[in-house]
Specification:
Helices cover about 30% and strands about 30% of the residues. The strands form 5 sheets. A 7-stranded mixed β-sheet has the order 16-15-14-17-18-20-19, with helices on both faces. A 4-stranded antiparallel β-sheet has the order 5-4-8-9, with no helix packed on it. The longest helix has about 35 residues. It starts with 14 loop residues before the first helix and ends with a helix.
């Protein structure tokens, strides 16, 4: 028997290596414990530090610097300066004390408007306490701005109503709220806020053009369009064939079977409803200006709303959104959220492929883009779909003469929204 070699002795770890590993583990544990301690301390003092404004921190830092200079150089003037700054902060704390109980309501009327229409808001502040409420200042963020209201001293149960206008010049989703009561000093050193409401939204829909019924769908098929595909289950009869194992008995044509003595079953031509896909590029590089981008959104919204009114199944997609199409209102709410993006997809073809890969094969594809998109990209999208799919392109070019040209597919140039209805009629023709 061949003797086996004894196992190699394990290399013993040096004392320095063991000590180093223990030190690293100890430092790691200490760091985690210290971090947790600082986080806990930060949460504990947050109610105090949270009321100090950036101006207040600057004043405190200046006071600390003045005391250091007074201590190092013996300058009495800086000692008085530091004391004055600290006294200002201490006096400001008196404005933070006091508590009120309000019932605050905010409402928008209406909650949906078209860009350019007037929208108003209302804020109601009522004293819900059993004692007199002191005067206070209310702040209400509206979009990018903040509306400020001075609420006088209110008796128990008394209320103060304030009205405000909401800017609706451009399509957007404008948040209003939350309503905040603000306490603080006149110098802006300290500030304490209490939140009273949640955020509500105002939907500013794009301007749309009214199109004729069935103009946007471009395929009119109330019962379904017959296709060359033969199937065993549908409503359009095609022919009879011999029975094969597995065929459903409900398709057996008994009269012919009795006459020929052979089981015969029906075949049908496949029918389908129109399936429309509307693709809008929201890449900022495809548009010459913000006005052109808004024109494209209005073109897309006009087409989509009319398709929904016609009862055609539709999907609407952009670079980063898939819009709801259950109702025209839901669709327009989502169009209000569309914003220019950059670099989401390399091309319009990539956008169409990515956003339609999981959808059923469409019968009509509508493309909407800006004047900076090369016309050749529309052709590249056309090659993604089969020969049975109709592809149409709408090119928004603000202020340009409207018209239609064919580059393998119809490409309609829309210079003004009010010309869209005539362009769609021409495309149908």
């Amino acid at each position: 028997m061949t003797p086996t070699a004894p196992p190699a002795p394990r290399r013993r770890e040096s004392g320095w290596a063991s000590a180093g590993r223990a030190l690293r583990n100890g430092l790691g544990n200490a760091t985690r414990i210290a971090g947790a301690g600082f986080a806990h301390a930060g949460r504990a003092i947050a109610p105090v530090t949270g009321v100090v404004t950036p101006t207040g921190w600057i004043v405190l830092a200046a006071a600390a610097g003045a005391f250091v200079l007074a201590g190092v150089f013996g300058w009495v003037e800086f000692l008085f300066l530091g004391a004055t700054l600290v006294a200002a902060v201490l006096l400001a704390t008196a404005t933070l004390f006091g508590r009120a109980q309000y019932r605050v309501e905010i409402a928008l009327e209406p909650v949906r408007v078209v860009a350019g229409e007037r929208a108003m808001g209302r804020m109601l502040v009522a004293n819900a306490a059993q004692r007199q409420a002191p005067p206070t200042r209310m702040e209400l963020p509206v979009g990018a701005g903040v509306a400020e209201f001075r609420v006088p001293s209110l008796a128990p149960g008394a209320a103060q109503e304030e009205l405000f206008a909401v800017p609706t010049a451009r399509r957007a989703v404008i948040p209003a709220g939350p309503a905040l009561s603000v306490r603080g000093d006149q110098l802006g050193l300290l500030r304490r806020t209490v939140r009273w409401t949640d955020v509500i939204e105002l939907f500013v829909h794009p301007v749309t053009a009214r199109l004729q019924p069935s103009a946007a769908g471009l395929v009119r098929d109330l019962e379904g369009e017959v296709t060359p595909v033969v199937t065993d289950n549908d409503i359009s009869f095609h022919a009879l064939r011999a029975y094969e194992p597995g065929d459903p008995l409900r398709n057996v044509h008994w009269r012919t079977t009795a006459r020929t003595g052979t089981l015969m079953v029906r075949q049908f031509e496949e029918t389908r409803r129109s399936e429309l896909v509307l693709v809008q590029s929201t890449d900022a590089a495809h548009y010459a200006s913000d006005d052109e981008f808004e024109l494209a959104v209005s073109v897309m919204a006009s087409l989509a709303v009319q398709v929904l009114r016609d009862g055609t199944t539709m999907h609407v997609v952009t670079d980063d959104l898939r819009l709801r199409t259950a109702t025209p209102t839901a669709l327009l709410d989502d169009t209000a959220r569309i914003e220019p993006v950059s670099g989401v997809h390399a091309s319009l073809r990539d956008l169409a492929r990515a956003q339609t890969s999981r959808l059923a094969a469409p019968s009509v594809v509508l493309l909407v883009a800006g004047s900076q998109l090369p016309v050749a990209e529309f052709r590249s999208v056309q090659r993604l779909f089969g020969a049975d799919t109709t592809v149409l392109a709408f090119r928004a070019e603000h202020g340009a003469p409207s018209g239609i040209r064919s580059v393998g597919l119809p490409v309609a140039t829309v210079g003004r929204l009010d010309e869209l209805a005539a362009i769609v009629r021409s495309v149908r023709g």
